[in-house]
Amino acid sequence: MKRINSFFLSLCFITSVYAGDILFPDIEGWQKNARVDHYNADSLWTLIDGAAETFLQFRYVEMQRMEYWQNDSVYFELHVYEYADEFNAFGIYAEERPEDAAFIALGTEGYADDYSVNFLAGQYYIKMHTNNSSGEVRNAMLEVASLLTSRLNPSPALPAVLSLFPPANKIPHSEKLIVKNFLGYDFFNDYPVFQMRYREGKNECFLFIIPAGNDENAGKLMSFFFEDQKISPAAGTVYKVKDPNNGILYLCRKDNSVWGVYNARSQKTAKILLQ
Amino acid sequence: MAHLSKRNFLKKIALAGLAGAAFSPEVKAGISDTEEIQKRKLQTRVLGRTGLKVPVMSSGALPVENINLVREIFKSGIRHVDSALVYKEGKNDEMVGKMLKEFGRKKFIVASKVQNDFDYTAKKFLSDNIGREFETKLDRILSLMQTDYLDILYVHDARCREQALHPEIMAAAEKAKKAGKTRFIGISTHENIPEVVQAACEAGIYDVVLASYNFRSGEEVKKAFAMAVEHGMGTVAMKTLAGGYLDKERTKPVNMTAALKYVLQDPNVHTIIKGIYTFEDLKKIMEVASDIRMTGEEEKALEEAKQYAGLYCKGCTVCLPMCPKNLPIPDMMRAYMYTYGYGEPLRGKELVTKHGIEPSVCNDCEECTVRCAMGFSVKERIRDIARLRDVPDEFLA
Fold this sequence. Notes:
The complex is a heterodimer.
Chain A: H1 6-9, E1 31-32, E2 37-39, H2 45-48, H3 52-57, E3 60-70, E4 74-83, H4 86-96, E5 102-104, E6 109-112, E7 116-121, E8 124-130, H5 135-152, E9 176-178, E10 193-200, E11 203-211, H6 215-223, E12 238-243, E13 247-254, E14 257-262, H7 267-274
Antiparallel strand pairs in A: 1-3, 2-3, 3-4, 4-8, 5-6, 6-7, 7-8, 9-10, 10-11, 11-14, 12-13, 13-14
Chain B: H1 6-11, E1 14-18, H2 33-37, E2 44-46, E3 53-55, E4 57-59, H3 67-75, E5 80-82, H4 91-103, E6 109-114, E7 118-119, E8 124-125, H5 130-145, E9 150-155, H6 161-164, H7 167-178, E10 182-189, H8 193-203, E11 208-212, H9 219-230, E12 234-238, H10 256-264, E13 271-274, H11 279-290, H12 296-309, H13 329-341, H14 345-354, H15 378-386, H16 393-396
Parallel strand pairs in B: 4-13, 5-6, 6-9, 9-10, 10-11, 11-12, 12-13
Antiparallel strand pairs in B: 2-3, 7-8
Helix pairs in contact in B: 4-5, 5-7, 8-9, 10-11, 10-12, 13-14, 13-15
């Protein structure tokens, strides 16, 4: 399979590059660890066990960990995951983000509950958690998060491709970046897939966009779904495909990308989403 | 690993091209792979004193982004599903819950894991209320899974006996069992497996042990599984593909069926949990579950993998803080690989010389404190390779 371009190609590979220590901010009343712990792609599992697999699907650089202590009993810790770019960081952030989270204004996007604060800041995904749910600890965590965000100076917006998804019936915060095994097949692994869930009455269906860089690549990518390789998918034409494992897919080529809908109960839904 | 080829995929797909907004009726589908999968008869083993009969292949983390594949996993005959609260921040547990609702709770053996923050240097839990933290996390799992109970609740990621035998952890797990929130208690471990299993056997409360086991595992891991079985525990193997690749560049994939069958040759392994991320993976896993005999090709692939794995250091650097002499262990393992794997002792010598490693470097340490994540005998290898320093280059070229 021809790869689209080096930018998209880079989304799918893991690297392990050592970076210098992040300057974790000091805050009053809290003692920081003397040392920043670094975890590369080979050692991440020693901290987070099987959860590491998900983090390494995306183009992982490294993770830096820091603890803040108060009176030897109350603590919070930060895991700062650095990715190769903001797309990959968004990918892992979206993978873990609950759709019903309490979102707060922090970094590119973030949310918090009694014991944790998680947020996206450009190419960084930052996770904080504590053993104490008091307001004082939460304020300290938010202060560190805010100071750290200023230092990291992230992009204020999610990847622009997400704004292409039509807003009607969209399930908020359901957007994802899938870099491996899309639809349960490994032959799309060279392509990033942005996906959003939509309400269709009681049903939920999916709209996906695969940026291909140009029309020719989009056509080639689409033809992977076709039995008859002689077909050259025309722009704007919607193709209805029966996938034995995923049911009916609706596909079309649009704006240098492949757009598709699956799990829709009616053609009408697919038509609306693809138009 | 063989891939589902584009050709095979395309054979099963029919097309209707439609102009503009016009849509044609649904095209008739042929028999899908997944229908074939469901016809297989799976081999089962009994999970120790739990008495639970489980197919030899079970599901690990689910592909939560693909509900169609998750459904096929639940339809396939796999009955034992392993999850953890830390997998995708609870989304894995949530997906298990959706499937239990769809397929019926009683048809499945459901396991999940609770982990309390632990300081591995000080060997103590960080929380000042371990029991409450444990219970809160368990209740969150049950809520996400929309069920009243787990079949197996694991104390997650134990790496030393202090964790396995911690009175508050054991009390919290037993309290959950008495309250009917779990039928059985398990313990999961990736590191120091013999020590943790020994402690689990002593504790007496653990019914199941879940531990890493693959073709790179040493004899001590096999013995640990045997010990667990002798004590009546059920055993579950994980990390059976040893990372999935033989090399750091991820260009040499492990032969999946060979690696799985290797582990299942050991009768002390009752089942394997494996993440299933493609329909092709599912098909292969079901093939293994129905016939664990190795083919000639698999035996060959496994032999090659073992040879490669026996020499290859991943450079995870977990070993570095363990050595009191701060030796550059990953580089020394690389020197060993150059010498014995590549047949290039001169390259090995260069590394040894560069770091100024003396042949007697490990003599001061009676017992080596380094525990290699790959199971290498670090002390023996360093002593072996350090001898190169005194060998003239002309003998090595």
